[in-house]
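Field: COMPLEX_INPUT
Field: COMPONENT_COUNT = two
Field: RESIDUE_TOTAL = 223
Field: MODE = joint
Values follow.
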Amino acid sequence: GDSVTQMEGPVTLSEEAFLTINCTYTATGYPSLFWYVQYPGEGLQLLLKATKADDKGSNKGFEATYRKETTSFHLEKGSVQVSDSAVYFCALIAGNNRKLIWGLGTSLAVNP
Amino acid sequence: DAGVIQSPRHEVTEMGQEVTLRCKPISGHNSLFWYRQTMMRGLELLIYFNNNVPIDDSGMPEDRFSAKMPNASFSTLKIQPSEPRDSAVYFCASSQGVEQYFGPGTRLTVT
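Field: COMPLEX_OUTPUT
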């Protein structure tokens, strides 16, 4: 079945460091791919998305490119801030239903 | 827009009691999702509705859990009887397209 695998955390970085969180997927057809972020004590919110191969989603300095050849959607940011400390979830939707398939989440802590 | 509204935000109850969690989706959204989040199991989809009809309840743990959506603006998740292992944060989310909008969650503690 469809699945999402993302790198285990926690990830700890210093402010202004480069961030990569790996995400790979298994799905039939052409899924839409998402990154959600959960700040402490809050619900999840959409960070960025890509709906077809080679699309790049971007928001708040974060980017991810839909790579069909490697079935990947890695999240990157060139210079993280303390306010980026959160849990990041990779997810996909495949087919015609509305059900998101979630990764387990990667916790990021950014130190000043 | 007020976003997805959940109540209560926190609930502490004793084992064996009935618990009802409430959700008001964003107006105009036609899909509603109930999730449970724990450290051990991560984020789990319990059930989702489309146009008030349950589409997939395969994630509902057992008969103690039930969910209803009597109209487009209200849904409940009920646990009866509650057990300590039900302690978790329960999220409601709604959508019109592929993007899901999450509520702030209800933190449930069963003692």
